[in-house]
Amino acid sequence: MAEIFSLKFPQSLGVYDDYADAQRAVDFLSDEGFPVQNVLIVGTDLKQVERVTGRLTTPRVAIAGAASGAWLGLLVGLLLGIFAKNGAYFATVLTGVMLGVLFGTVWALIGYAATRGQRDFSSITKVVPGRYEVLTEHNLLAQGQELLAKLPGRAVDL
What we know:
The chain is α+β, with helices and mostly antiparallel strands. Helix content is 45%, strand content 23%. The chain is built from 4 helices and 5 strands.
């Protein structure tokens, strides 16, 4: 699988500031008949960006834990309900949800208490490339450069 994301002797066709420009260059190469199966778009200058989504408080943690536990309890209740006898299916599912809420809340609060206020916010993270480099096999470099020189409005650093 890793071989599909590599080239034997890669050479740079260009470096672009955003993905749309790199994609446009590869699309142009494809339209011109270039063997694009020998092209990679590689994100470089990686940085991790963390977006803070809100403040964590004990009630928010408890509610999130309860919701997460409810989903898990529902799944367990549905699976166990299959084996319930005498029409106890819905009671089994409801018990699973209630136990899930209880355990989800307790575990979320224990986890929150363990941080001792060192991380009182919620966030999401993403790895973002600063630039995108278009690479091709060394024996196709001249052909690719020649074609990209014809790309209308090209914005490339060679």
